[in-house]
C-alpha cells in the first residue's frame, strides 16, 4: 500500500481565480481537525514566491505541499518539487484548474481538502519549454496570445476568459511554423500549437483528449487556420473530448519538439505568458513529479 502523507504545507495564492481565500485556513482546520495530520499554511506575497515556499517546505521535511490556486500557482509550487520526495497536492481555486480537473481532484473546496487526506503519491511526467517547466499545457499562437491578454485583465474567472477569446479571435492573424517532431519535419501555417501533458486547458476544455500524465509523451496539437463557420463545431468538440476529430486539428505524440516561428513573441506555460525567442525546444521528463491522487 502507498504511504499517505503526514505533514502538509499549504501555499495559498490570494489572487488566483475569483473567490476570496480568507476562509481557506478555517476550512482546512475543519477538515484536518478530525485527523492526526500536521499542517502549516502560508500565503504568497508576490509572483514567484510559491516556488521559494515550496523549496523551504522540501527542506523542512514536509510530505506534501499543497498549491491553493490555479495552474499558475501549481506551476510555481511544482517547480520547487521536481525530482523531490514531497508530493504536490491541489485545492483548485484558479480560473481554469486544468491539472486538477485532469487528475479528478474535486472542484468543491471541502471535498478537495478531504481528498488530500485520502490520497497517496503517484509519479507523473513534467515538460520543459526552453528549459522552463510546465505541468498541464503550454502553447504558441492563439492560446499564447490569450494567456498574455488574460493576464492583463483586471478581473479573472471563466467569463473574463471567454470575453478575451471572442475579442482576440476577430483580429487574429495565423503564423507559419517550422516544426520538428522527434526529427520529423513539418512546415505549416497554424492558428495555434499546443503542447499537452494533461488533456485540458482548464474549465473542461479538452485540447488533447488522449493525453496522459504518465505516458512519457507530449501531445502536440497543431491547429490549422479554420473558417469562422467552424467555430461552433470546434467549441462543441473541445467541451465533449472530441477535438481530435476536428477536421483542422492534427495531434501527434512526441518526446522532443523544436519550433521555429516567424519572430519572437508570447508563449504560455500553464496559462502564464512568457516572452520568448523565435526558436523553441520542448521536451518531456518522465516520472519527475509526485502528485497526490486517489
Ligand atoms: N501574492 C501574489 N500577488 C500577485 N500575484 C501572485 C501572487 N501569488 C501568485 N501570483 C501569481 O498569480 C497568477 C495567477 O495565479 P493562477 O494561475 O493560480 O490563477 P488563475 O490564472 O486565476 O487560474 P488558472 O491558471 O487555473 O486559470 C500567477 O501568475 C502567479 O504567479
Automatic annotation (TrEMBL):
Its cofactor is Mg(2+). GO terms for molecular function: ATP binding; kinase activity; metal ion binding. One of its GO terms (biological process) is phospholipid biosynthetic process. InterPro entries: ATP-NAD_kinase_N, Diacylglycerol/lipid_kinase, Diacylglycerol_kinase_cat_dom, Lipid_Phosphate_FormReg, NAD/diacylglycerol_kinase_sf, YegS/DAGK_C. One of its GO terms (cellular component) is plasma membrane. Residues 3-133 form the DAGKc domain. Keywords: ATP-binding, Kinase, Lipid biosynthesis, Lipid metabolism, Magnesium, Metal-binding, Nucleotide-binding, Phospholipid biosynthesis, Phospholipid metabolism, Transferase. The keyword Transmembrane helix does not apply. This is YegS BmrU family lipid kinase. The lineage of its organism: Bacteria, Pseudomonadati, Bacteroidota, Cytophagia, Cytophagales.
Amino acid at each position: 500500500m502507498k504511504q499517505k502523507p503526514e505533514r502538509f504545507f499549504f501555499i495559498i495564492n490570494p489572487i488566483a481565480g475569483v473567490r476570496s481565500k480568507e476562509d481557506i485556513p478555517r476550512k482546512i482546520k475543519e477538515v484536518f481537525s478530525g485527523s492526526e495530520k500536521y499542517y502549516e499554511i502560508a500565503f504568497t506575497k508576490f509572483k514567484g514566491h510559491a516556488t521559494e515556499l515550496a523549496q523551504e517546505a522540501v527542506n523542512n521535511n514536509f510530505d506534501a505541499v499543497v498549491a491553493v490556486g490555479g495552474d499558475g500557482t501549481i506551476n510555481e509550487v511544482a517547480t520547487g518539487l521536481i525530482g523531490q520526495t514531497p508530493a504536490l497536492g491541489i485545492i483548485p481555486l484558479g480560473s481554469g484548474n486544468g491539472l486538477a480537473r485532469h487528475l479528478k481532484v474535486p472542484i468543491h473546496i471541502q471535498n478537495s481538502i478531504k481528498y488530500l487526506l485520502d490520497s497517496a503519491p503517484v509519479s507523473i511526467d513534467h515538460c520543459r519549454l526552453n528549459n522552463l517547466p510546465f505541468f498541464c499545457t503550454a502553447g504558441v499562437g492563439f492560446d499564447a496570445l490569450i494567456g498574455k491578454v488574460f493576464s492583463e485583465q483586471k478581473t479573472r474567472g471563466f467569463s473574463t476568459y471567454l470575453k478575451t477569446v471572442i475579442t482576440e479571435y476577430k483580429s487574429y492573424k495565423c503564423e507559419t511554423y517550422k516544426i520538428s517532431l522527434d526529427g520529423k519535419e513539418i512546415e505549416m501555417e497554424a492558428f495555434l500549437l499546443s503542447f499537452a501533458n494533461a488533456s485540458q486547458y482548464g474549465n473542461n476544455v479538452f485540447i488533447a483528449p488522449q493525453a496522459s500524465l504518465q505516458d512519457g509523451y507530449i501531445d502536440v496539437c497543431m491547429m490549422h487556420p479554420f473558417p469562422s463557420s467552424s467555430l461552433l463545431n470546434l467549441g462543441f468538440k473541445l467541451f465533449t473530448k472530441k477535438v481530435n476529430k476536428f477536421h483542422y486539428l492534427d495531434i501527434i505524440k512526441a518526446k522532443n519538439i523544436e519550433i521555429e516561428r516567424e519572430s519572437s513573441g508570447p508563449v504560455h506555460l500553464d496559462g502564464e505568458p512568457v516572452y520568448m525567442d523565435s526558436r523553441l525546444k520542448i521536451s518531456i521528463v518522465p516520472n519527475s513529479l509526485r502528485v497526490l491522487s486517489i
